[in-house]
Amino acid sequence: MNDLIIEKAKSGDRDSQEIIYREFKDRIYTLALYYTKNPANSSDVTQDIFIKIFRVLNKFKRGSFKAWIYRVSVNHLLNYVSRKRTFVDLKQKHLKKTDGNIEEKIAIERTLKKMPEKLSFLLILREKEELDYIELSNVFGVPTGTIKSRLYKARRVFRELYGGKDE
Amino acid sequence: MNKKLEILLSSYIDGECEHPEIAENMLKEGKKAKEIYTELLTSRKIRNLEYQECPLPFDKINTSTKREPIKQLLVTIGAVAIAILVLFPLIKNSYQNHQSKIKNLTEVLK
């Protein structure tokens, strides 16, 4: 993300804010979709997250903007999950009809659902969003060594649950 | 296998391993290491998930905070105005009643 756009967005420039919004909206909406009951809730949560992002944007000084965005989003979603204790059971209607291997996707989402939220967030941000260890360390506020061992644990748990060993 | 070595394999998957040569040797020589590596790679399936399109239009992201104090101020002014309009006649009546009672009392005392 261009520094100039971030600076303009900080000063309240709506066009720059819209560029940031368009860049991240689908990612955050999809992330929220895993942890909320339905698309409507997910939209609400996404809206709340972006309002928060733009309100506290001045606090972003340097480093990975992507990591900062995810830090705000993950904190918000963890609060949401702890309040609601619901993790959506993604059904086929939420997936695109053109998806090739829909069964596998449902299995992946169900596996993520069974995992502790912090581990599933971590794995999604690493595997899907490809955040590096330093960025993840910024998102979760822990040292990179902790990220390393947590990712190992998350992979282990994912493998066990995906393989159906818990059922 | 030693947990530390398994963590090393996990970080090797991420390309964040401090000693990739150790991981490579483990994978070349050990069948168990290969098994664990393959198991840990299962999480790569997450990459197959697709983003869902967010239906929320940007104009719903209203970050305007400047309007809120003005709105609050207007509400306060309105409330004060209503209070004055309602309370003023009451206070006035009550004052006049009070005055007339004092007057009556003064007359009685005389």
Residue windows where pLDDT falls under 50 for at least 5 positions of chain B:
none
Overall 3D shape of chain A: globular
* CATH fold-level name of chain A: Rna Polymerase Sigma Factor, Chain: A
Radius of gyration of chain A: 17 Å
Structural class of chain B: mainly alpha
Mean pLDDT across all residues of chain A, rounded? Answer: 86
CATH class of chain A: Mainly Alpha
Q: What is the chains' assembly state?
A: heterodimer
What would the principal axes of the Cα set say about the shape of chain B?
A: rod-shaped
Biggest beta sheet summary of chain A: none
Number of helices of chain A: 8
Tell me roughly what share of residues is in helical segments of chain B: 55-70%
Average pLDDT of chain B:
85
| Distance between the ends of chain B | 110 Å
The N- and C-terminal alpha carbons of chain A lie at a distance of 43 Å
Can you write the helix and strand succession of chain B as a string? HHHH
Number of strands of chain A: 0
What gyration radius of chain B follows from the Cα positions, in whole Å? 40 Å
Walk me through this protein's architecture.
The complex is a heterodimer of chains A (167) and B (110). Chain A has 167 residues and is mainly alpha-helical. Chain A has a single domain (3-162), classed as RNA polymerase sigma factor, region 2, helix turn helix motif (Rna Polymerase Sigma Factor, Chain: A, Orthogonal Bundle). Chain A is 71% helix and 0% strand. Chain A is built from eight helices and no strands. Chain A has helices at residues 3-10, 14-35, 39-55, 65-84, 102-114, 117-127, 133-140, 144-162. The longest helix of chain A has 22 residues, at 14-35. The radius of gyration of chain A is 17 Å and the shape is globular. Chain B is mostly helical and 110 residues long. Chain B has four helices and no strands. In chain B, helix 1 (3-13) crosses helix 3 (31-40) and helix 2 packs across helix 3 (31-40). The longest helix of chain B has 43 residues, at 67-109. Chains A and B meet through helix 2, helix 3, helix 5, helix 6 and helix 8 of A and helix 1 of B.
